[in-house]
Specification:
The complex is a heterodimer of chains A (254) and B (429).
Chain A (H helix, E strand, L loop, with lengths): L4 E6 L5 H7 L5 H5 L3 E5 L11 E7 L5 H12 L1 E7 L1 H5 L11 H8 L23 E3 L6 H12 L11 H8 L4 H5 L15 H4 L16 H10 L4 H8 L7 H4 L1 H4 L1
Parallel strand pairs in A: 1-2, 1-3, 3-4, 4-5
Chain B lengths: L2 E6 L9 E8 L2 E9 L6 H4 L8 H6 L6 H15 L6 H32 L4 H7 L1 H22 L8 E2 L2 E2 L5 H5 L2 H19 L11 E6 L10 E4 L4 E2 L4 H4 E4 L8 E4 L5 E2 L2 H8 L5 H9 L12 H22 L15 E9 L2 E9 L5 E7 L1 H19 L5 H13 L5 H4 L5 H4 L2
Parallel strand pairs in B: 6-11
Antiparallel strand pairs in B: 1-2, 2-3, 4-5, 6-7, 7-8, 9-10, 12-13, 13-14
The chains are: A alpha/beta (254), B alpha+beta (429).
Chain lengths: 254, 429
């Protein structure tokens, strides 16, 4: 039986999520021994044509050419998994969705006519069906390994959709909001980082995006009571997952 | 001889999306270009209206390989504008975190991206089948860098523990001491890396452009410094814009830097080493001398050896910083915003990273400019490519294409970083 094939694709992004694969220093060589890496340009110049059993997709769609390219990748992939906030919700570059992108181009580039870009930065799921979305800015190494292993064995990945709060409780971390009055998005943010920021005495700032049915309507008034202005609260929600509606509209719903 | 065009549509083993085209007419090089098609993400535009305290977390997202560089240059700009100098233990922790990034990034480039070129493999994974011990040594080195970033920064990609004024939580002495053993092993691995890479075959190449790197008295400049060049420039970060400018060319979503009035320059390991090798740790200097590197190195192919020497230095420096560490009284000092313009620089693994921010009195960013090393090196890379092609034009297409790709990888270009930029009035010059 031939070995399963893996491909890794990049769209608008920082490269950090695919770097997570190379950051699995202990698992990389054993993993490479059980699969065939067909296309992973950051790691290898050897390229094998599809179809691919599993495609990992990093980055968001921001150009007409990329909107075409993702269709081709979908056609060639048995399973397609997005990795990270850019691919899953449009990333921080989705801040352009709420601004005038022509003005953005003029601010950054001397010759805007050379630049080909869409007015929006959109997640992969806005363009093609996606089999699983792995959250995080960046993704978590252990979760990535779980997802790759699950897909190669034909089972659903065991990735919890609960909030960061549950991770704090499990780790016995004192609540930074209750005990120190620190603004924290933990109650509405999906778990996966193992409550990293609270463990460093910092409030969660939402890298993993909104959890399932987040109660932002209850959290926003609490953040205001901690002395946060509407502008501060909006800044807190409008970062790497601004493209996810519950975060995008948190202030108006709170 | 007929006209021929050599194209690589999608460069592998670099960070980000780029392509290369070389056109030859017989032996004559007609045209060389490094095309950057990585889509723009407009960081400088959406930084406008954000709080100055958000700049480190937001700009980290420009690059997953060197986020600490972005965080540090942003923080340097904000703190210098606001008149804050952090206590020495905080500065030392920043330097330690930055050393972690150098170890991680250099080990990635040396072993996973660059070494396969010299040894005739398509990837480190393929190389590992024939030379498992070497690749495992590289992965162990890289993991040590990541472990250091994870302890001090919270995680290796986009660390969460960094803020304007200091950190959220600082490590205890015993926590840092736990890293000593693996750093000592990493230092041995780095010494082996210098010997290993120095044994590769190198075509003889010298680049003669200006070299630009930071300088700091009595240390190998990493997280701060003045801007120095081989032609004698010696500048405060606030003088950068007076001496360097950026151009926007059609083939690239990245701006290209040059010295004002024309003039290509190079930053990164070759520049740092050539301008500052005297400040390397004694062990790193010894390792360089043992393989005959000399006090300066202008050979891009040997940049892999220079990166390896910097790996020795970063491990050595980390051990020194851990040994000397006394936790600060507070993890951060208070920083109140000041209206005005702040300038920050640091030495990203790939070279000088410049940030400039204009703030209003409540700390809202009015304007931002970020110049990553790969933008600054782009013209030097193309010049080098042109010269390499001219000297090797008789090679067959496939062999020449591989040599060209290797020439580009010599500079460890980070295309994700390079895509996005700059400021209207500068561009119109």
């Amino acid at each position: 039986m031939s070995r399963p094939t893996l491909a890794v694709w990049k769209f608008a992004s920082c490269d950090g999520c695919q770097l997570t694969l190379l950051d699995m220093e202990d698992e990389l060589l054993p993993l490479a021994g059980t699969i065939d890496i067909s296309d992973f340009r950051e790691a290898t110049s050897a390229v094998v044509d599809g179809p691919y059993d599993l495609s990992l997709v990093e980055g968001s769609i921001t150009t007409p050419h990329d909107a075409e390219r993702i269709q081709e990748i979908r056609r060639n992939s048995k399973a397609l998994v997005t990795i990270g906030a850019c691919a899953t919700s449009g990333g921080i570059q989705a801040l352009r969705n709420f601004a005038d992108v022509d003005e953005f181009t003029r601010i950054v580039y001397a010759s805007p006519q050379y630049i080909s870009t869409l007015a929006t930065s959109t997640p992969i799921s806005a363009h093609v069906p996606v089999d699983f979305e792995l959250r995080g800015c960046p993704i978590d190494k252990r979760q990535l390994l779980e997802v790759v292993t699950a897909f190669l064995h034909g089972r659903r990945p065991g990735i919890p959709a609960t909030s960061v709060c549950t991770e704090c409780k499990r780790r016995g971390i004192v609540c930074v909001m209750v005990a120190h009055g620190t603004a924290c998005l933990g109650p509405v943010t999906q778990a996966g980082c193992n409550a990293l920021c609270p463990s460093y005495d910092r409030g969660c700032f939402g890298c993993f995006g909104p959890m399932e049915s987040p109660n932002t309507g209850a959290l926003v008034p609490l953040l205001r009571r901690l002395g946060r202005s509407d502008r501060d609260v909006e800044r807190l929600f409008h970062t790497f997952n601004v493209g996810a509606e519950p975060f995008q509209k948190a202030v108006e719903h709170g | 001889m007929a006209k021929r065009t050599i194209v690589t549509d999608y460069l592998a083993r670099v960070e980000g999306e780029g392509a290369m085209t070389v056109q030859l007419d017989g032996d004559r090089v007609e045209h060389v270009e490094l095309r950057i098609f990585e889509p723009p993400r407009f960081f400088e535009a959406f930084l406008r209206g954000r709080s100055f305290r958000e700049a480190p977390d937001i700009t980290a997202r420009i690059c997953g390989i060197c986020p600490v560089a972005y965080q540090t240059s942003a923080i340097n700009a904000m703190e210098s504008l606001c008149g804050v100098e952090v206590p020495e233990p905080i500065r030392m922790l920043r330097r330690l975190l930055y050393c972690g990034e150098w170890i991680e990034s250099h080990a990635l480039h040396v072993y996973m991206l660059h070494a396969p070129d010299f040894l005739g493999y398509e990837s480190a994974i393929e190389l590992a089948r024939d030379a498992p011990a070497a690749v495992e040594r590289g992965l162990a080195l890289k993991r040590t860098g990541n472990d250091l970033m994870t302890l001090v920064g919270g995680r290796e990609i986009h660390p969460i523990n960094v803020r304007v004024g200091g950190f959220y939580r600082v490590p205890t002495k015993p926590e840092l001491r736990e890293l000593v053993e693996s750093l000592e092993r990493a230092r041995e691995a780095a010494l082996d890396t210098v010997r290993w890479t120095a044994g590769f075959e190198f075509p003889e190449r010298i680049v003669d452009c200006d070299l630009v790197a930071l300088e700091q008295p009595d240390e190998y400049a990493i997280e701060r410094g003045r801007i120095r060049s081989s032609a004698g420039l010696d500048l405060a970060p606030s003088e950068y814009d007076e001496h360097f400018e950026e151009l926007h060319v059609e083939r690239s979503n990245a701006l290209q830097s040059q010295l004002r009035g024309g003039g290509t320059y190079l930053c990164g390991p070759l520049a740092r080493y050539s301008l500052g090798s005297a400040e390397l740790s004694p062990l790193a200097r010894e390792a360089a001398a043992e393989v005959g590197l000399g006090d300066e190195c202008r050979d891009p192919f040997r940049s892999i050896v220079v990166r390896s020497v910097e790996l020795v230095h970063a491990c050595d420096e980390s051990l020194r910083l851990i040994e000397a560490y006394e936790p600060p009284d507070h993890p951060a000092v208070q920083v109140d915003p000041v209206a005005g313009t702040g300038y920050g620089v640091s030495e990203a693994p790939r070279g000088l990273l410049y940030h400039r921010y204009r703030l209003d009195a409540d700390g809202t960013i009015l304007d931002a400019k970020i110049v990553p090393p790969t933008s600054q090196n782009q013209l030097a890379i193309e010049d080098d490519l042109r010269d390499v092609v001219a000297r090797n034009s008789r090679l067959e297409d496939d062999v020449l294409r591989r040599l060209c790709e290797q020439t580009i990888r010599n500079y460890d270009p980070c295309i994700s970083c390079a895509t996005h930029f700059l400021d209207l009035q500068v561009e119109r010059k």
